[in-house]
Specification:
single chain; alpha/beta; Rossmann fold; SIR2/SIRT2 'Small Domain'; 2 domains; six-stranded parallel β-sheet; 9 strands; 42% helix; binds adenosine-5-diphosphoribose
Protein backbone atom coordinates (compact mmCIF):
# COMPACT_ATOMS: atom_id res chain seq x y z
CA UNK A 1 0.00 0.00 0.00
CA UNK A 2 1.48 3.36 -1.08
CA UNK A 3 1.78 5.31 2.21
CA UNK A 4 2.53 8.61 0.43
CA UNK A 5 -0.67 8.45 -1.62
CA UNK A 6 -2.64 7.28 1.42
CA UNK A 7 -1.46 10.33 3.43
CA UNK A 8 -2.16 12.68 0.52
CA UNK A 9 -5.70 11.30 0.20
CA UNK A 10 -6.30 11.56 3.95
CA UNK A 11 -5.13 15.19 3.94
CA UNK A 12 -7.39 15.95 0.96
CA UNK A 13 -10.39 14.36 2.72
CA UNK A 14 -9.67 16.48 5.81
CA UNK A 15 -9.58 19.68 3.71
CA UNK A 16 -13.35 19.79 2.95
CA UNK A 17 -16.39 17.75 4.13
CA UNK A 18 -18.03 17.13 0.72
CA UNK A 19 -16.46 13.71 0.16
CA UNK A 20 -18.43 10.94 -1.55
CA UNK A 21 -17.83 7.19 -1.91
CA UNK A 22 -18.92 5.26 -5.01
CA UNK A 23 -18.78 1.50 -4.45
CA UNK A 24 -19.12 -1.69 -6.44
CA UNK A 25 -19.08 -5.43 -5.80
CA UNK A 26 -15.38 -5.36 -4.92
CA UNK A 27 -16.11 -3.76 -1.53
CA UNK A 28 -18.17 -6.84 -0.58
CA UNK A 29 -15.87 -9.67 -1.77
CA UNK A 30 -14.19 -9.70 1.66
CA UNK A 31 -17.67 -10.34 3.07
CA UNK A 32 -17.84 -13.54 0.99
CA UNK A 33 -19.93 -12.17 -1.87
CA UNK A 34 -18.25 -12.84 -5.25
CA UNK A 35 -18.05 -9.88 -7.59
CA UNK A 36 -19.28 -10.08 -11.17
CA UNK A 37 -16.29 -9.89 -13.50
CA UNK A 38 -13.27 -11.18 -11.59
CA UNK A 39 -12.31 -14.83 -12.21
CA UNK A 40 -14.96 -16.98 -10.47
CA UNK A 41 -17.35 -14.04 -10.45
CA UNK A 42 -21.12 -14.28 -10.71
CA UNK A 43 -21.21 -13.75 -14.47
CA UNK A 44 -18.91 -16.75 -14.94
CA UNK A 45 -21.55 -18.93 -13.30
CA UNK A 46 -24.72 -17.29 -14.57
CA UNK A 47 -24.79 -15.79 -18.07
CA UNK A 48 -26.24 -12.32 -17.39
CA UNK A 49 -28.10 -12.35 -20.71
CA UNK A 50 -29.90 -15.55 -19.65
CA UNK A 51 -30.55 -14.69 -16.00
CA UNK A 52 -30.18 -10.96 -15.30
CA UNK A 53 -32.08 -9.02 -17.97
CA UNK A 54 -35.68 -7.91 -17.48
CA UNK A 55 -36.55 -9.76 -20.71
CA UNK A 56 -35.02 -13.00 -19.35
CA UNK A 57 -36.99 -12.57 -16.12
CA UNK A 58 -40.27 -12.05 -17.97
CA UNK A 59 -39.50 -14.94 -20.35
CA UNK A 60 -38.60 -17.45 -17.65
CA UNK A 61 -38.91 -16.13 -14.07
CA UNK A 62 -38.35 -19.58 -12.56
CA UNK A 63 -34.94 -19.78 -14.28
CA UNK A 64 -34.03 -16.24 -13.20
CA UNK A 65 -34.91 -17.23 -9.64
CA UNK A 66 -32.28 -20.01 -9.77
CA UNK A 67 -29.69 -17.19 -9.71
CA UNK A 68 -31.64 -14.97 -7.28
CA UNK A 69 -32.00 -17.87 -4.82
CA UNK A 70 -28.25 -18.66 -5.02
CA UNK A 71 -27.45 -14.97 -4.44
CA UNK A 72 -29.95 -14.82 -1.59
CA UNK A 73 -28.21 -17.71 0.18
CA UNK A 74 -24.83 -15.92 -0.18
CA UNK A 75 -26.26 -12.60 1.03
CA UNK A 76 -27.85 -14.41 3.98
CA UNK A 77 -24.37 -15.28 5.31
CA UNK A 78 -22.65 -11.98 4.48
CA UNK A 79 -21.64 -9.47 7.15
CA UNK A 80 -20.19 -5.97 6.68
CA UNK A 81 -16.37 -6.06 6.44
CA UNK A 82 -13.81 -3.44 7.63
CA UNK A 83 -14.20 -1.52 4.36
CA UNK A 84 -17.94 -0.96 4.93
CA UNK A 85 -17.25 -0.07 8.57
CA UNK A 86 -14.54 2.43 7.60
CA UNK A 87 -16.92 4.32 5.29
CA UNK A 88 -19.57 4.39 8.05
CA UNK A 89 -16.94 5.82 10.42
CA UNK A 90 -15.92 8.48 7.88
CA UNK A 91 -19.60 9.55 7.66
CA UNK A 92 -19.78 9.63 11.47
CA UNK A 93 -16.73 11.94 11.51
CA UNK A 94 -18.66 14.30 9.22
CA UNK A 95 -16.22 13.73 6.35
CA UNK A 96 -18.35 11.55 4.06
CA UNK A 97 -21.61 12.95 2.65
CA UNK A 98 -22.92 9.68 1.21
CA UNK A 99 -22.17 6.30 -0.26
CA UNK A 100 -23.47 5.76 -3.79
CA UNK A 101 -23.48 1.98 -4.19
CA UNK A 102 -24.08 -0.31 -7.14
CA UNK A 103 -24.41 -3.19 -4.67
CA UNK A 104 -27.72 -4.76 -3.64
CA UNK A 105 -26.42 -6.48 -0.49
CA UNK A 106 -27.47 -3.86 2.12
CA UNK A 107 -24.03 -4.16 3.78
CA UNK A 108 -23.37 -0.39 3.87
CA UNK A 109 -26.58 0.11 5.84
CA UNK A 110 -25.76 -2.83 8.12
CA UNK A 111 -22.31 -1.29 8.72
CA UNK A 112 -24.00 1.89 9.96
CA UNK A 113 -23.87 4.16 6.91
CA UNK A 114 -26.90 6.45 7.07
CA UNK A 115 -26.85 8.10 3.63
CA UNK A 116 -26.72 5.30 1.05
CA UNK A 117 -27.90 5.85 -2.52
CA UNK A 118 -28.93 2.44 -3.94
CA UNK A 119 -28.15 2.88 -7.64
CA UNK A 120 -29.13 -0.69 -8.52
CA UNK A 121 -31.76 -1.30 -5.84
CA UNK A 122 -31.69 -3.65 -2.90
CA UNK A 123 -32.26 -7.42 -2.75
CA UNK A 124 -33.84 -7.07 0.71
CA UNK A 125 -37.15 -6.16 -1.00
CA UNK A 126 -39.28 -8.10 -3.52
CA UNK A 127 -41.49 -6.24 -5.99
CA UNK A 128 -44.28 -7.16 -8.37
CA UNK A 129 -45.16 -5.50 -11.65
CA UNK A 130 -48.59 -4.79 -10.13
CA UNK A 131 -46.82 -2.41 -7.72
CA UNK A 132 -46.91 -4.61 -4.58
CA UNK A 133 -43.65 -4.84 -2.61
CA UNK A 134 -42.66 -6.93 0.44
CA UNK A 135 -39.56 -7.43 2.59
CA UNK A 136 -37.75 -10.51 1.21
CA UNK A 137 -37.21 -11.68 4.79
CA UNK A 138 -40.94 -12.29 5.12
CA UNK A 139 -41.07 -14.85 2.29
CA UNK A 140 -37.50 -16.19 2.38
CA UNK A 141 -38.23 -19.04 4.80
CA UNK A 142 -40.69 -20.41 2.26
CA UNK A 143 -38.34 -20.65 -0.66
CA UNK A 144 -35.29 -21.67 1.40
CA UNK A 145 -37.45 -24.62 2.56
CA UNK A 146 -38.47 -25.23 -1.06
CA UNK A 147 -42.09 -24.13 -0.52
CA UNK A 148 -43.75 -21.31 -2.50
CA UNK A 149 -40.76 -21.04 -4.81
CA UNK A 150 -40.49 -18.74 -6.59
CA UNK A 151 -42.35 -16.25 -4.35
CA UNK A 152 -45.65 -15.02 -5.73
CA UNK A 153 -47.44 -11.72 -5.22
CA UNK A 154 -50.22 -12.10 -2.67
CA UNK A 155 -52.22 -9.43 -4.53
CA UNK A 156 -52.12 -10.66 -8.14
CA UNK A 157 -50.39 -14.05 -7.98
CA UNK A 158 -47.55 -13.11 -10.38
CA UNK A 159 -43.97 -14.21 -9.60
CA UNK A 160 -42.20 -11.39 -7.75
CA UNK A 161 -38.64 -10.24 -8.40
CA UNK A 162 -35.96 -8.80 -6.09
CA UNK A 163 -36.11 -4.98 -6.09
CA UNK A 164 -32.85 -4.80 -8.07
CA UNK A 165 -32.15 -3.17 -11.44
CA UNK A 166 -31.85 -5.88 -14.10
CA UNK A 167 -30.15 -5.18 -17.40
CA UNK A 168 -32.66 -3.34 -19.59
CA UNK A 169 -34.37 -1.67 -16.61
CA UNK A 170 -34.02 2.04 -15.77
CA UNK A 171 -32.14 3.27 -12.70
CA UNK A 172 -34.69 4.35 -10.03
CA UNK A 173 -35.26 8.06 -10.73
CA UNK A 174 -34.67 9.28 -7.15
CA UNK A 175 -31.41 7.32 -6.87
CA UNK A 176 -30.23 8.55 -10.25
CA UNK A 177 -30.96 12.22 -9.46
CA UNK A 178 -29.42 12.01 -5.99
CA UNK A 179 -26.30 10.26 -7.28
CA UNK A 180 -25.83 12.83 -10.05
CA UNK A 181 -26.23 15.66 -7.50
CA UNK A 182 -23.64 14.10 -5.19
CA UNK A 183 -21.19 13.46 -8.04
CA UNK A 184 -21.01 17.15 -8.97
CA UNK A 185 -18.25 19.27 -7.41
CA UNK A 186 -17.19 16.74 -4.76
CA UNK A 187 -14.01 17.25 -2.79
CA UNK A 188 -12.79 13.63 -2.88
CA UNK A 189 -14.72 10.99 -4.88
CA UNK A 190 -13.63 7.58 -3.60
CA UNK A 191 -14.20 4.90 -6.26
CA UNK A 192 -14.05 1.60 -4.37
CA UNK A 193 -14.22 -1.94 -5.77
CA UNK A 194 -15.82 -1.29 -9.12
CA UNK A 195 -14.63 -2.09 -12.64
CA UNK A 196 -16.48 1.11 -13.62
CA UNK A 197 -17.64 -0.42 -16.92
CA UNK A 198 -21.44 -0.46 -16.50
CA UNK A 199 -23.33 2.66 -17.56
CA UNK A 200 -24.93 4.82 -16.36
CA UNK A 201 -23.19 4.19 -13.00
CA UNK A 202 -19.82 4.49 -14.72
CA UNK A 203 -20.63 8.08 -15.71
CA UNK A 204 -20.54 9.20 -12.06
CA UNK A 205 -16.73 9.27 -11.62
CA UNK A 206 -16.47 11.09 -14.96
CA UNK A 207 -18.94 13.76 -13.79
CA UNK A 208 -17.02 14.06 -10.52
CA UNK A 209 -13.76 14.48 -12.41
CA UNK A 210 -15.20 17.00 -14.89
CA UNK A 211 -16.64 19.12 -12.04
CA UNK A 212 -13.31 19.34 -10.23
CA UNK A 213 -13.51 16.37 -7.87
CA UNK A 214 -10.40 14.46 -6.81
CA UNK A 215 -10.91 10.86 -8.03
CA UNK A 216 -9.34 8.23 -5.80
CA UNK A 217 -9.41 4.68 -7.19
CA UNK A 218 -9.33 1.90 -4.58
CA UNK A 219 -9.09 -1.49 -6.25
CA UNK A 220 -7.02 -4.64 -6.50
CA UNK A 221 -5.89 -3.54 -9.97
CA UNK A 222 -6.05 -0.54 -12.32
CA UNK A 223 -9.44 0.11 -13.97
CA UNK A 224 -10.38 2.35 -16.91
CA UNK A 225 -10.34 5.28 -14.47
CA UNK A 226 -6.63 4.90 -13.79
CA UNK A 227 -5.65 6.77 -16.93
CA UNK A 228 -7.06 10.25 -17.23
CA UNK A 229 -9.38 10.34 -14.23
CA UNK A 230 -7.86 8.99 -11.02
CA UNK A 231 -5.63 11.51 -9.23
CA UNK A 232 -4.63 8.78 -6.74
CA UNK A 233 -4.79 5.01 -7.13
CA UNK A 234 -4.58 2.86 -4.00
CA UNK A 235 -4.15 -0.78 -4.99
CA UNK A 236 -4.94 -3.57 -2.53
CA UNK A 237 -7.92 -5.02 -0.66
CA UNK A 238 -10.47 -2.33 0.24
CA UNK A 239 -10.77 -4.02 3.66
CA UNK A 240 -7.18 -2.97 4.37
CA UNK A 241 -6.93 0.35 2.50
CA UNK A 242 -10.09 2.05 3.80
CA UNK A 243 -9.41 1.37 7.51
CA UNK A 244 -5.82 2.61 7.06
CA UNK A 245 -7.13 5.73 5.30
CA UNK A 246 -9.69 6.47 8.03
CA UNK A 247 -7.01 5.91 10.70
CA UNK A 248 -4.90 8.65 9.06
CA UNK A 249 -7.96 10.93 8.84
CA UNK A 250 -8.69 10.42 12.55
CA UNK A 251 -5.03 11.11 13.38
CA UNK A 252 -5.29 14.30 11.34
CA UNK A 253 -8.44 15.33 13.22
CA UNK A 254 -6.73 14.60 16.51
CA UNK A 255 -3.73 16.74 15.67
CA UNK A 256 -5.95 19.65 14.53
CA UNK A 257 -8.21 19.71 17.64
N1 LIG B 1 -10.81 -4.76 -2.76
C1 LIG B 1 -10.81 -3.84 -3.77
N2 LIG B 1 -11.27 -4.10 -5.02
C2 LIG B 1 -11.76 -5.34 -5.25
C3 LIG B 1 -11.79 -6.35 -4.25
C4 LIG B 1 -11.29 -6.01 -2.96
N3 LIG B 1 -11.28 -6.89 -1.95
N4 LIG B 1 -12.33 -7.47 -4.82
C5 LIG B 1 -12.61 -7.17 -6.11
N5 LIG B 1 -12.25 -5.91 -6.37
C6 LIG B 1 -12.42 -5.17 -7.63
C7 LIG B 1 -12.15 -5.96 -8.88
O1 LIG B 1 -10.77 -5.83 -9.25
C8 LIG B 1 -13.06 -5.23 -9.90
O2 LIG B 1 -12.37 -4.13 -10.50
O3 LIG B 1 -13.78 -4.81 -7.69
C9 LIG B 1 -14.20 -4.70 -9.05
C10 LIG B 1 -15.50 -5.46 -9.24
O4 LIG B 1 -15.93 -5.23 -10.55
P1 LIG B 1 -17.27 -5.96 -11.07
O5 LIG B 1 -17.21 -7.39 -10.73
O6 LIG B 1 -17.44 -5.54 -12.50
O7 LIG B 1 -18.44 -5.33 -10.18
P2 LIG B 1 -19.09 -3.90 -10.33
O8 LIG B 1 -18.11 -2.90 -10.83
O9 LIG B 1 -19.77 -3.60 -9.05
O10 LIG B 1 -20.21 -4.16 -11.45
C11 LIG B 1 -21.08 -3.08 -11.73
O11 LIG B 1 -22.37 -4.51 -13.17
O12 LIG B 1 -23.20 -6.59 -13.53
C12 LIG B 1 -23.53 -5.33 -13.13
O13 LIG B 1 -25.32 -4.69 -11.76
C13 LIG B 1 -24.07 -5.30 -11.72
O14 LIG B 1 -23.76 -3.58 -10.04
C14 LIG B 1 -23.08 -4.42 -10.97
C15 LIG B 1 -22.43 -3.61 -12.07
Amino acid sequence: MNQTSLKAVADKILSKPKNVAFTGAGISTESGIPDFRSPGGIWERFNPMEYATIEAFRRDPVKAWEMFRELSRILEEAEPNPAHLALARLEELGLLQAVITQNIDNLHQEAGSKKVVEFHGNARRLVCECGKSVEAELVKTHWLEGRDFPPRCESCGAIMKPDVVLFGEPIPRTASQEAMRLAQHPNVFLVVGTSAVVAPASYLPVVANKTGGCIVEINLEPTDLATGYAEHSLYGPAGEILPALVELVEAGLGSST
